[in-house]
């Protein structure tokens, strides 16, 4: 439960707790030094304590013991030995049940442990003994709030106002309590009292508006704001408040009219543009709505957080092209209005990616990383873009820089490993990718990709045993990784090993990713190795049909298959095509010259 204004006043009270404790010490010190009769003590306190506070008459020894015990309890509380402090305050109350300071301290100890229900009876006793102690009443108000005992707050705030009639926070607290209890007319009367005390204020106006709206008195709420506009025609905030009341209660035309006045008054007010955008959107005038948004976004005085929230509101509409285009344009404007905020470039880069503008996204994401290198996701996105653009040197440079800041990021280790593998430095690639597998134990996608890449690298390094083991491990994490299946199968066929296993894997890769020329070529080659020439011819023709690059290797393989099917003339023709497409090898030359297959 929350009372809107209450925390303001009460928090201030707690900041002054140290002063109150010092006050208690100064109060008790003279008593500890000069022996006074118990009669004198009661007489001294008779002005601010009720007769109920007078318990048994304490002896001098009892009184001295209580004072000494109180100081000791405060000391234990100061060093956070709360258990012992609690026991000491309880002993004081056994000897002197009317010791209101101990009741208060013991209640505070319970409140520190969130035992607000336990603190309430102690504070109720304290205020019954000492009715004029502001701190006691404030603590009791806080406990009632925490236990949602709202019906008891009226009396508490009446007492606080009696003690400190010039503190407006107590009036707001009281009004808020009435508000929660739905005693709206009583709350309005309290706001009238505050206004007499401090004069008119926006806080009072806003709280009255809330009550009028809860009572359904829309015209009254609006008329109050209209009076403010008449009295303060240059204050845009009143126009905005009135526009919000009209718009949220179904008076869109009135809201539009008042906000258009505000726009003429202050065309550089971003909040006015955003409010108008909402109204135009409700009226299905999307073009006018977006125009107002773009004007609001271009104003630097409006914080970037609110603008980021507006852009994120488009995300649920993706992949709608209009939503993506709108988010893209707004994020672009964001970088102009907030050129030194990394978040502006990060979301603009992300929107460029969402719109498949990868080349344009790369420098934008890089700018975000330069402005703030402590956001890992931006660093990873940059390296991914660089890899996608085949900018391997940049990927390695930025990836290794990111790892100097975030050394335990498995994906970044993998991405840098990919870059080194593509540069044919397989030893460096293996080092980074092995880091990735040691850092990540749960992400099956990353583990499958990493072990698959290790299989490729180890193959290039002629470490066949480690290559096969890596491929097998990759497939345990993802048996449907089509590229792993294809590569592993192809390398087995080159070695003429485990051809049945290779054929099974290759066939599955083609099921997963049909019409892929390189996968079809692999399967045709394995069938050729198994001497299934007719099937091999069928799959090689598929590969050639889907090949857009005129692969020399595929034409050479096709010639090999045709030779074993007895069509030597067609075989030689395809071997020559392979040579014409750039294949240079002594084996191919021998096939052409001798017109027969050669390994």
UniProtKB/TrEMBL annotation:
UniProt TPR repeat ranges: 236-269, 448-481
Keyword set includes Membrane: no
PROSITE patterns: TPR
A UniProt-annotated Pfam family: TPR_16
Source domain of life: Bacteria
Alphabetical UniProt keywords: TPR repeat
Protein name per Swiss-Prot or TrEMBL: Tetratricopeptide repeat protein
Species for this entry: Mucilaginibacter angelicae
């Amino acid at each position: 439960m929350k009372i809107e204004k209450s925390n303001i006043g009460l928090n201030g009270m707690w900041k002054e707790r140290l002063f109150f404790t010092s006050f208690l010490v100064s109060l008790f010190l003279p008593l500890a030094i000069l022996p006074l009769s118990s009669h004198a003590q009661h007489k001294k306190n008779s002005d601010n304590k009720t007769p109920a506070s007078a318990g048994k008459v304490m002896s001098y020894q009892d009184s001295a013991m209580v004072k000494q015990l109180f100081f000791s309890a405060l000391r234990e509380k100061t060093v956070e030995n709360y258990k012992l402090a609690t026991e000491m305050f309880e002993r004081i109350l056994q000897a002197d049940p009317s010791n209101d300071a101990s009741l208060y301290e013991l209640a505070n100890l319970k409140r520190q442990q969130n035992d607000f229900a336990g603190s309430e009876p102690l504070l109720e006793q304290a205020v019954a003994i000492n009715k004029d102690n502001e701190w006691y009443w404030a603590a009791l108000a806080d406990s009632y709030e925490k236990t949602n005992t709202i019906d008891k707050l009226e009396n508490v705030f009446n007492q606080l106002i009696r003690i400190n009639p010039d503190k407006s926070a107590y009036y707001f607290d009281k009004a808020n309590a009435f508000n929660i209890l739905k005693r709206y007319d009583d709350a309005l009367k309290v706001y009238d009292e505050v206004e007499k005390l401090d004069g008119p204020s926006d806080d009072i106006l806003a709280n009255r508006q809330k009550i009028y709206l809860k009572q359904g008195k829309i015209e009254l709420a609006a008329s109050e704001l209209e009076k403010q506009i008449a009295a303060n025609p240059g204050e845009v905030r009143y126009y905005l408040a009135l526009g919000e009341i009209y718009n949220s209660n179904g008076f869109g035309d009135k809201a539009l009219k008042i906000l258009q006045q505000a726009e003429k008054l202050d065309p550089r007010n971003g909040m006015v543009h955003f409010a108008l955008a909402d109204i135009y959107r409700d009226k299905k005038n999307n073009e006018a709505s977006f125009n107002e948004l773009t004007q609001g976004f271009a104003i630097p005085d409006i914080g970037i957080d609110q603008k980021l929230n507006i852009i994120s509101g488009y995300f649920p509409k993706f992949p709608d092209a209009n939503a993506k285009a709108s988010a893209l344009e707004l994020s672009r404007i964001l970088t102009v209005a907030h050129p030194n905020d990394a978040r502006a470039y990060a979301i603009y880069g992300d929107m460029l990616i969402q719109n498949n503008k990868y080349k344009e996204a790369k420098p934008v994401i890089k700018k975000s990383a330069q402005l703030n290198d402590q956001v890992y996701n931006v660093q990873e996105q940059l390296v991914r873009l660089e890899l996608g653009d085949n900018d391997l040197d940049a990927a390695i440079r930025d990836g290794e820089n990111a790892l100097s800041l975030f050394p335990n990021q498995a994906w970044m280790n993998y991405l840098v490993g990919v870059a080194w593998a593509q540069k044919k430095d397989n030893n460096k690639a293996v080092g980074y990718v092995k880091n990735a597998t040691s850092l990540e134990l749960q992400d099956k996608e990353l583990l499958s990709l990493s072990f698959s890449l290790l299989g490729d690298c180890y193959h290039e390094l002629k470490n066949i045993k480690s290559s096969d083991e890596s491929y097998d491990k990759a497939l345990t994490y993802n048996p449907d990784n089509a590229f792993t299946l294809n590569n592993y199968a192809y390398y087995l066929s080159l070695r003429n090993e485990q051809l049945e296993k290779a054929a099974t894997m290759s066939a599955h890769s083609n099921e997963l990713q049909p019409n892929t020329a390189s996968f079809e070529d692999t399967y045709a080659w394995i069938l050729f190795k198994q001497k299934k020439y007719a099937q091999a011819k069928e799959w090689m023709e598929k590969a050639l049909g889907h090949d857009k690059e005129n692969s020399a290797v595929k034409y050479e393989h096709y010639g090999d298959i045709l030779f074993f099917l007895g069509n030597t003339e067609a075989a030689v023709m395809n071997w020559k095509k392979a040579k014409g497409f750039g294949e240079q090898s002594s084996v191919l030359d021998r096939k052409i010259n001798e017109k027969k297959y050669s390994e």
